[in-house]
Amino acid sequence: MEIAGLVLIAVFFVLLLLNVPISFSIGIASLVAMLVSIDFVPAVTTAAQRMAGGLNSFALLAIPFFVLSGLIMGRGGIARRLIECAMALIGMLPGGLALVNVLSCTLFGSISGSAVAATSAIGSFMIPEMEKKGYDKNFSTAVTVAASTTGMVIPPSNILIIYAIAGGGVSISALFVAGYLPGILVALSLMMVCSLYAKKHGYPVGSAMPAKKIVQKVLAAVPSLLLIVIVMGGIIAGIFTATEAGAIAVLYSLLLSVVIYREVKVKELSAILLKAGEITAIVLLLIAVSSTMSWILAYENIPQSISDFLLTISDNPLVILLIINLTLLAIGAFMDMTPSVLIFTPIFLPVAESLGLSPLHFGIMMVLNLSIGLCSPPVGSVLFVGCSVAKTSIEQVIKPLMPLYAAMFVVLMMVTYIPAISEFLPRFFGLM
Amino acid sequence: MNNLTHWLDKLLSLAVTLLMLAIVVTVSWQVMSRYIFHVPSSGSEELARFLLIWIGMLGGVYAYRTKAHLGLNIVTMKLSAIKQLYALIFSHLAVLAFSISVLVIGGINIVNLTLDPVQTSAALNINIAVVYSIIPISGLLFCSYAIVELLSTIRTLRGNK
């Protein structure tokens, strides 16, 4: 096993560092590792077979739909309505605008399913707005970037679907429900940091709107928020599967954006379909090659070896979980979330399970962990988008990001060591 | 050559768009037939799964063309312009090697395996070979685009020297 495992890792890193697309890096590394003990023709045939098999799955069908509904919903006025609703609800608190930013990014991230989309849609409005009211631009950017990643664990979430597939049949419905409390905890912890920061710097406190205006602003955001209610309500009540929920989300977002708000024109839809096809295919190709990789991992018994190795460092579950978390934080800083989840779920999930974690708990921990990587250098995609939206530099945003990282890390540790945070809601709804 | 790639680009975008449209219609139909007409259609689920395989492979080629696949450029970014071009050539050669070996050769093998004996899908009686044929087809498309990219990168490299 050692040779194939080392070959897999070495080839993967060389290809990755030479900027070969990650999907091809995984595919080639897996193939070369297979060739250590298998002849060429059976190796390429098995690799192709695993790829086809990896794509032939009902659970995967939800992905193109949530990508599509996210793209349709992410256009035009929905960002504005969510911001105004948040402003009406919490704008008058100390550090109000920063709190509004956190809430809007969280809601938008959840609806659009994309942290990058949340940063550009909410950030392009909120960062200048906060700057106008005297907030530091780099702080505002840091808040937007950190808050945008909370949508990753708050359903509907494609990354949780990807984890469910990589984890070998974890229930998507249960994962979706499990994401709520951890996601809300992250948002609240970020808000806490914002309040303290605003108080320390004496940022202005907004005035409350008249009650009538509050109701009006909240009602205007209801149709957008209703998407979450329909999708999650249906899943929790067991009325439809995640895939069907995705299709309903597409139909609802079409109704809302094309017919009711008229913000998306019918002739724009073909470009949206193509874009959704592209995003979906990037994920699907990664899933296909990861399925080849997990075959060779299992064939060579590699997860078992890594698990044994970790247990030689310590037999204390708390320490091993900390090591896994620190490893994932380092990986998340370099690699995007989808490939990280696909590569490291088959490796770390068996270890976590042997320590008594449920696959549900581990999945939420992993996605929350990798969310931090999305907003950290050197490769955090959300951080890059945030800086370009605000026209500032990563070096300047890092300092105000520090307390926000700390808040996210504290929540990560809570989620890691208190299973109930992830498991209470799914148990309550009878999903686990 | 340029004309041919342009024509291929158009065809590929159209195929991905239509496949996405087809999958939306198929699953929407499935939901409607189940909840409104109360006639569960098992065929639509199967069709949607097959469409997804096609979207994954053809869309994957499209994403390669638009350079949208995820990669890590923090190391190559720091190289000199000439070395970046060499890295780019290496990257396209890697895509070419994987496409020929796994997607084309391995893909043709799995298509052949489903032909002898002939396998058909449970609900719609679709020949599985048709479904899997997209793997060698997309392999050939990856190869074509990799060669197009290689030629243009080599041309740039010659111009830079």
Write the layout of secondary structure elements.
The complex is a heterodimer of chains A (432) and B (161).
Chain A: H1 2-17, H2 22-37, H3 40-55, H4 62-73, H5 78-90, H6 96-112, H7 115-132, H8 137-148, H9 158-166, H10 172-178, H11 180-200, H12 211-236, H13 242-260, H14 269-299, H15 302-313, H16 317-334, H17 337-354, H18 359-374, H19 381-390, H20 394-417, H21 420-428
Helix pairs in contact in A: 1-2, 2-3, 2-14, 3-14, 4-13, 4-14, 5-6, 5-12, 6-7, 6-8, 6-11, 7-8, 7-19, 8-19, 8-20, 9-17, 10-21, 11-20, 12-13, 14-17, 15-17, 16-17, 16-18, 17-18, 18-20
Chain B: H1 2-35, H2 42-65, H3 81-115, H4 128-132, H5 134-160
Helix pairs in contact in B: 1-2, 2-5, 3-5
Describe this structure in words.
- The complex is a heterodimer of chains A (about 425) and B (about 160).
- Chain A is mostly helical and about 425 residues long.
- Chain A folds into two domains: about 1-55, no CATH class; about 55-430, no CATH class.
- Chain A has helices at about 1-15, 20-35, 40-55, 60-75, 80-90, 95-110, 115-130, 135-150, 160-165, 170-180, 180-200, 210-235, 240-260, 270-300, 300-315, 315-335, 335-355, 360-375, 380-390, 395-415, 420-430.
- In chain A, helix 6 (about 95-110) runs antiparallel to helix 11 (about 180-200) and helix 18 packs antiparallel against helix 20 (about 395-415).
- The two termini of chain A are about 35 Å apart.
- The mean pLDDT of chain A is about 90.
- Helices cover about 80% and strands about 0% of the residues of chain B.
- Chain B is built from five helices and no strands.
- The model of chain B has no long low-confidence stretch (mean pLDDT about 95).
- Chains A and B meet through helix 1, helix 2, helix 3, helix 4 and helix 13 of A and helix 1, helix 2 and helix 3 of B.
